[in-house]
Amino acid sequence: MLPPKNRASFEGDPQLQSEQKLKYLLQEIPLGIIECNNDFKVIHWNPAAERIFGYSAADAIGQDAIFVFPSSARTQARQTWGDMLSQRGVERRTSENIVKDGRTIVCEWRSTPVVAPGGQVTGFTSFVQDVTERKKSEDEHYRSRQMLQLILDTIPQRIFWKDRNFSYLGCNKPFAVDAGLDDPGDILGKDDFELSWSDVAQAYRDDDRSVMETDTPKLSFEEPQTKPDGSQLWLKTSKVPLHDQYGQVFGVLGTYEDITQRKRAEGELHRSRQMLQLVLDTIPQRVFWKDRNLTFLGCNKPFASDLGLDDPSDIVGKDDFDLGLSEVTRQQCEYERLVIENDAPKLDFEESLITPGGRQVWLRTSRVPLHDHQGKAMGILVSFEDITERKRSEEIISQQAREILEISTPVVQLWEGVLAVPLIGMLDSERTQQITERLLYRIVETDSPIAIIDLTGVPMVDTQTGRHLIDTIAAVKLLGTKTLLTGIRPEIAQTLVRLGIDLTGIVTRSSLSSGLRYALDALDLEIRDKALRQKTIGGE
Q: What is the pTM of this model?
């Protein structure tokens, strides 16, 4: 509508009023209007064109219209306008243009030929709109969408969105691959019953419906999915409702990640832990582990049973005093604390404990520090085995061995002042030591000046046996007692010579009886026939 002053001036002339309206519109229209002749010279430049390009009408009229184009685009512009004029068509373009202050802007051009009443083309009119800000916004929006799509297609999580009818509105590339589709666009309009996981489609739909109807997200839950090849995946899924500009729910957005490897690893870990627990519960040793505060972290079944616990897990969080263990526990805790603080194991040692009932038990124990991922001692592992019965058996065997040794190495007083050691069997270091000790003790006890060591029952003599004999004879000599070796058979004599055993200064006899006779002679004693002695007495 014309302003009031202009409207009043032309109220009586409809034609003039129409022309004035047109002129006003051309002046006020936000589109730049540029009229050119057939030589592309500007013949009209409206105010909007002045605002867009910064040039006044006086600056522009008479110039070639290509002056607002970059030099690199001018030839193309002239060619395009020429084609438009010859073909009498409409030409549309979006191009960069140069404004008066040197800035580059983006404009949309719509050019059309001007045809005179006689049919000849007299030039063209271009309508120009500055779309720089819009183009910038569109470019930014495009880049943003491209970046978003790139992110969606790159992240390992699968993403999809559906409408209220459970039809897919879109997805990212990884989701499309899981669905067996070549392109995310192929999923548009489909639902879960049309995809490879149709066997669980109803469960998916029930989840979607719950999220949309309650307008409540469902986060981080696990569910299975069947792949196109029939293999099964495990997914960790989250679903949230989608809202329109009025806050109404119009669909659901879902994300999930493939946790199949993690589930498999968890399964393997579970089976491994079960096997480890089975091993721990089967071995006869008692095993437990504690943290730095000596609070129980776990134990095996035998240890739990010893404490009267139904399950090993019942011990977790307790300490020795919570379990009512004896006062001996206090000392054991100190030992455990030292292992942790010194970060040094103590392995395979025997210890004796007194039970609350007063019974002595023997244990074979190992204490090992436990380390965290940084190598720092964070607790202790203790294993022990009750070896009380074994220790008792060992003591019995040891006692029996001592008794047998005493029987096999008797020290006999043959006569007052004469001791004899009849050796039977092989000699070793322990037995020789026992012989020496017993012989020396008896010499002191009986104050015997002569000791006979009889080798009749010794099957063979080696270097070690010979040295043991020499050492025994030397020890006896220090007590002032003379030693005789008897029972030296020819083969033993040859062995002693071959081994270089020096028997110089030692009296030897072939038999115990000859040795005894020598001992009696040395003591100025003699053995007489009793019948001969009685006869002699009777003759007197």
A: 0.41
